[in-house]
Amino acid sequence: MINMADKEWIELGKIIGDTGPKGDTGPCTTIKGSYDSYEELIYEHPTGNDGDAYLVDGWLYVWDGTV
């Protein structure tokens, strides 16, 4: 991970799974696009807004605003 101004992109892993029970509404995450590599992501978006997410080669990265 690359830290920038006490914020970072975090890798959440491959997005695969079964549907679970309905839970409470949580904070919003918006998948804004996709890239072939992490380097492309950080070149285009060195920082983000809380909840921004991008797919990188099938992996989900979410800007969480904290380190």
In brief, what are we looking at here?
This protein is 10% helix and 39% strand.
Taking Cα atoms only, what radius of gyration do you get, to the nearest Å? 13 Å
- Provide the spatial order of strands within the biggest beta sheet: 1-2-5-4-3
Q: Globular, elongated, flat, extended or rod-shaped: what is the shape? A: globular
| Count of discrete structural domains | 1
Instruction: Outline the low-pLDDT stretches.
Output: none
* H and E string: EEEHEE
Residues in helix, %: 10-25%
Distance between the termini: 10 Å
Reported for the largest beta sheet, the result is: 5 strands, mixed
Query: What is the count of DSSP helices, taking H or I runs of 4+ residues?
Result: 1
Could you give the count of β-strands?
5
Structural class: mainly beta
Strand percentage: 35-45%
Please give a handful of descriptors for the protein shown:
67 residues; mainly beta; five-stranded mixed β-sheet; 10% helix; globular
